[in-house]
Amino acid sequence: MIEKLQVAATASLLMFTATTGVFAETDQLKFAQDDGSFISVKAPALYPEGLEYDPLREQFLLGSVRQGKVVSLDHEGSVKTLVDDDRLRQVIGIRVDAERGRLLINNSDYGLGERSKPEDKFGFISLAVYDLETGSPIQFVNLSNLRPGEAKFVNDLTIDVEGNAYITDSLAAAIYKVTPSGSATVFLTNERFRSEGFNLNGIQYHDDGYLLVAKKSDGALFKIPLDDPQRFTEVRLPKPLVGTDGLVLVSGNELVAITNLASGVESNTVFQLISNDGWESAEIGETFETGNVYPTTGTVVDGKLFVNYGQLNTLGGAVNDGAEFESTFRIQEVGSK
Q: Distance between terminal CA atoms of the chain?
């Protein structure tokens, strides 16, 4: 059970508004010089991976990899369980659809959740949809049969203006599409998305009609047009951002890439990417080193960038070796406009 919310550093962290997501392209983030501003959450065995913000109720949402649920943290420091469904094995990516009052959850099983089933390891995946206010179930879409014979793990997701969800599968070299009515298809698959370990991960929808998708294992970033996904291209970067987990689209030409560990590379850095050519290429702007906390995802609230420090690098040892579970996690303020 989550006992309490502890707030450190500036009191401004509690001054949330309903303004979230993107802001003016000329008003770019300035990264912090230290890690002094953060929200510390005491929550034994939570191990949050997904981080989102509900602008209607002005609260953060965190998805639990270990416990298979979603909790909320409001501006007064009150913490409660929003979604706790026995069908959820391990909550990975989460996405708020405030316009339609939905919370979308990627549900996978890689054997480290309280509800994991050994026979389903890397074989069971689904998209679960809940009422954003009450946490009541709306849809449960089984995706397990979309790529027969493949190991599978749905990781991150995004939604377009029509409410379609696009979901990365880190093992099956695929992106899935799920319509608001629950119809699921393979949107795109390509051998370029395959490699050792976990591959496709962070994904963001751009208002100009394409997806930006990160490949964790080798640090590539792809631009995928919605009207012709087979014509995807690779964004030219100064260097591969190996270990990219979550992406945050701050504005049309500013993207944040949150990196941790992959392919033997310990990056543990938040990168600001700036593109002036419609994401044909991008340059690296500011950076923020997180330390060995396994940062995963982020969100922008009232012009402030927050990143989740989920400590997932300690979960496997705790489960397999009977070690003590982590009890404190952090939502770090990395920068602001």
A: 35
Q: pTM of the entire structure?
A: 0.93
- Sheet of strand 244-251, all strands in order from the earlier edge strand to the far edge: 244-251, 254-259, 269-274, 283-289
Structural tokens at position 237 = 């970067």
pLDDT for 134-161, tens place per residue? Answer: 999 999 999 999 999 999 999 999 999 9
- Report how far residue 166's alpha carbon sits from residue 86's, in angstroms, rounded to the nearest whole number: 24
What mean pLDDT is predicted for residues 89-93? 98
pLDDT at 17 over 70: no
What is d(CA 8, CA 13) in angstroms, rounded to the nearest whole number?
A: 9
Asked if residues 188 and 229 have their Cβ atoms less than 8 Å apart, the reply is yes
Between CA 285 and CA 200, with CA 332 as vertex, the angle to 5 degrees is: 65
Instruction: Tell me the pairing of strands 165-169 and 48-54.
Output: unpaired
pLDDT tens by residue, 322-331: 999 999 999 9
* Three-class secondary structure assignment of the chain: CCCEEEEECCHHHHCCCCCECCCCCCCCCEECCCCCCEEEEECCCCCEEEEEEECCCCEEEEEECCCCEEEEEECCCCEEEEEECCCCCEEEEEEEEHHHCEEEEEEECCCCCCCCCHHHCCCCEEEEEEECCCCCEEEEEECCCCCCCCCCCEEEEEECCCCCEEEEECCCCEEEEECCCCCEEEEEECHHHCCCCCCEEEEEEECCCEEEEEECCCCEEEEEECCCHHHCEECECCCCCCCEEEEEEEECCEEEEEECEECCEECCEEEEEECCCCCCECEEEEEEECCCCCEEEEEEECCEEEEEECCHHHHHHHHHHCCCCCCEEEEEEEEEC
Q: How far apart are CA 254 and CA 274, in angstroms?
A: 5
